[in-house]
Amino acid sequence: KMDDDDDIPQLSSHTLAALQEFYLEQQQREGMKTSQGFNQYSIGSIEEDWQLSQFWYSDETASCLAKEAVLEAGKGGRIACISAPSVYQKLKEQDGEDFSVCILEYDRRFSVYGEEFIFYDYNHPLDLPENLLPHSFDIVIADPPYLSEECLRKTAETIKYLTKGKILLCTGAVMEEQAAKHLGVKMCKFIPKHSRNLANEFRCYVNYASGLD
């Protein structure tokens, strides 16, 4: 809660309005579920939505991946997060650092982040805004929502389109061969953890000499 925080950063009026809507809807949410057929895409507090196969990283893992991305993007670097909102949120906490970041995400609740949010559906991997130029990101971090060859293959098209070269992929250990085939990435020693334990063993993959090894 924001009460006892004196140094709250000043938010734009647009963001403030969105936040107020947020809290209001959070209060109304329980009542709405029954009467109006609750709209899961309304901006509520952004919790995991399992219907969208969302699982947030633990705080420690998100911090670690965010640090790695900043390091590898370099000064003034550009970072793209594909279906990896918890890393995006960690990156945004490091305000004032010299990098920029975009979030490509299917869940429109993340549109509260304004222009950095890009609606993304892996079924249409190159259906991207014109201002997302090819090979314009120093590093792309991706966490495809499903452990399927199709999902990885399509997300890989987006990754290869956006990255200048560096790729940091997070997906199940079972996808190791597919990840090598579609993206040329190798498994790191670093083991990503989630805030809730997943049944599938989860790993990170990179195509450069990484601090995660």
Percent of residues in β-strands: 15-25%
Assign a percent range to the helix content: 25-40%
Main beta sheet, described?
7 strands, mixed
The oligomerization state is single chain
Counting DSSP E segments of at least 2 residues, the number of strands comes to 7
How many helical stretches? 5
Q: Identify the overall geometry.
A: globular
Write down the overall mean pLDDT: 83
Question: What is the top-level CATH class of the domain at 58-147 and 155-206?
Answer: Alpha Beta
Organism: Cardinalis cardinalis
Keywords: Cytoplasm, Methyltransferase, Transferase
Subcellular location: Cytoplasm
Main location: cytoplasm
Descriptive keywords:
alpha/beta; 7 strands; Rossmann fold; transferase; 213 residues; seven-stranded mixed beta sheet; DNA_methylase_N6_adenine_CS
Q: Can you put this structure into words, describing what you see?
A:
This protein is 32% helix and 18% strand. By secondary structure, it is an alpha/beta fold. It has a domain of 142 residues: Rossmann fold. The protein has a seven-stranded mixed sheet with strand order 3-2-1-4-5-7-6, with helices on both faces. Helix 2 packs across helix 3 and helix 4 packs parallel to helix 5. It is globular and about 45 Å long. It comes from Cardinalis cardinalis. GO terms for molecular function: nucleic acid binding; protein-lysine N-methyltransferase activity. Pfam families: N6-adenineMlase (PF10237).
What are the SSEs and their pairings?
Blueprint: H1 13-35, H2 59-73, E1 77-82, H3 85-93, E2 99-105, E3 117-119, E4 137-142, H4 149-162, E5 163-172, H5 176-183, E6 186-187, E7 202-206
Parallel strand pairs: 1-2, 1-4, 2-3, 4-5
Antiparallel strand pairs: 5-7, 6-7
Helix pairs in contact: 2-3, 4-5
Main location: cytoplasm
GO cellular component, one term: cytoplasm
Catalytic activity: L-lysyl-[protein] + 3 S-adenosyl-L-methionine = N(6),N(6),N(6)-trimethyl-L-lysyl-[protein] + 3 S-adenosyl-L-homocysteine + 3 H(+)
